[in-house]
Amino acid sequence: MDAPAGEAAIAGLIGGALRLDPAAYRLALDAPGGLALALWIFALAGLSAALAQSVALFANRVRPWRFVASLTVGAGLYTLSVLVWIAALALVTTLLLDREVPAVALVRLVGLAHAPQLFAVLGFLPYFGAGIGAILTIWTYLGVAVAARATFALDLPETLGALAGAWLLTLLLQRTVGRPVARLTRWVRRTVAGTPPTPARRSGEGGP
Amino acid sequence: MTFLPDPWTLLLAALATWIVSGLLAPLETLGWWAGWFGRNGDDPGAPGPLLEDEPPEDVGADRGDGVGRPAHDAWVVFLSGIHVVEDQTFAPLERAFLRRLRHDLPGTAVLEVFPYSVTNRALTGQRAFAWFWRRAVRWKQDGRRLAGLIGFAINVRNGWQVAVSADRRYGPMYDQGSARLIERALRRAGFDPADGAPVILVGYSGGGQVALGAAPVLASRFGRPLQVVSLGGVLASPRTLEGVERVLHLRGRNDAVARLSTWFFPGRWRFARWSTWNRGKADGVVEVEDLGAMDHTGGEGYLDPDTTLPDGRTHQTATAEAIVRAVRDARPDRDPTRPPPGGGDAPAPTNR
Description:
The complex is a heterodimer.
Chain A: H1 7-18, H2 22-30, H3 34-52, H4 55-59, H5 64-97, H6 103-113, H7 132-152, H8 156-175, H9 178-193
Helix pairs in contact in A: 1-2, 2-7, 3-5, 3-6, 5-6, 5-8, 5-9, 6-7, 7-8, 8-9
Chain B: H1 7-34, E1 74-79, H2 92-104, E2 108-113, H3 130-141, H4 147-166, H5 171-188, E3 199-204, H6 206-222, E4 226-231, E5 244-252, H7 256-261, H8 276-283, E6 286-292, H9 315-330
Parallel strand pairs in B: 1-2, 1-3, 3-4, 4-5, 5-6
């Protein structure tokens, strides 16, 4: 993996992604450290989302060390789930749109498009936080769409088709071969938290 | 050269401070619930042990005669607005108003509870930033420069606690905590749920939201219904009105805070017919009473003893009379010839 780019370059890329600037995505494709940056964004966004949803951990009265461990596991699982979604997106783009999209390039782009999810922790805000997750998800999808148009020259219908196809494919996977994985994920969460967590929809997984 | 940050920097700093204080706001409730701090233990619903060395509360005249007659014919618990920093309000208008209530309601206990901490810690008490709040209160009381900014900081801190209470994720835990504090204050003052004296929670401003959230929990714990009086309350539509006999929302025509706050709570919007608030209004449980041209606070506010209404009564008198009426209507020994709550010589509830 290449070394991360400088702080100013990272800030520039993330700022551009938040502004939905196509140039930021074109830069990310070749920027040194772009892959590392993407993975860092996934991990931090996962941590941010896990913090926003931590009320379930408090409600189940987990101990502080288990709380921290659960957040770490949540961030890891979030990263894995986005990588699965990226794989589905690559598959759909290749098979349906007949475009050759390198998986690593896709990780770089989707990673940068996940920059708004760094603010997922704002979902923890009392009362006003509940709607923030939905706004960030739309923001992220817009980022993916801008990235797809800027780098792979997909037009709007193709972009929407690819996103919808990836979503359907991950849904299909969840309902079929993904069941044992979901059971394993639940087991990991329960074991780390030391208690059965309150069932809660995890909007942060399986895509933006 | 004077260092003056540009307005955008100041605005950004204020926004960041507001967001950070919001992110920290639920931690006290969640940490208490999880048993990380506070005296929650295994049963967060259970009241903590009552401290024998705690001084008895000055709650108003006691009419107990020791032969089975209840010590008080009603229990009023006053939950102050978001400007408060401890269980006894420092605001002169509120102090005067509570004296007035105690005077006008002989035989009724009037208690105060700090509604913005489920761990019952005053801002000036055992907290990491207690030094800051103590200094802030002194600053505000002395009316020194930037006292308004200090007041704003207190309002922001406590305002977020109101949002915690209104939040569907955190609210149920917050309600358990505030109900526990209210029960603790009541029992410390000699309250016995079995004696039949009614309990009326009077919530001023943000205290109205806390009262509305705690009332169903207390009703369930006491095994009998409660009443809530909201004075210019900043209220979300409650999650439930189970066990709440009556909600009287007193509102001034010039109270922009109470009026504008409804914008943030869709359940309070008129067309949200399915909301608990609007169903409560349709069932007659929730009543809205117009107090006249009163503001939320300060001069011309609900508690102002100087400004008068067109009928000659001061704002303080009109507000006190509305609450006294609500308490008398709630008492079991009320005159049966008196009309039911909301009727008679009281200004007609508008149910708006």
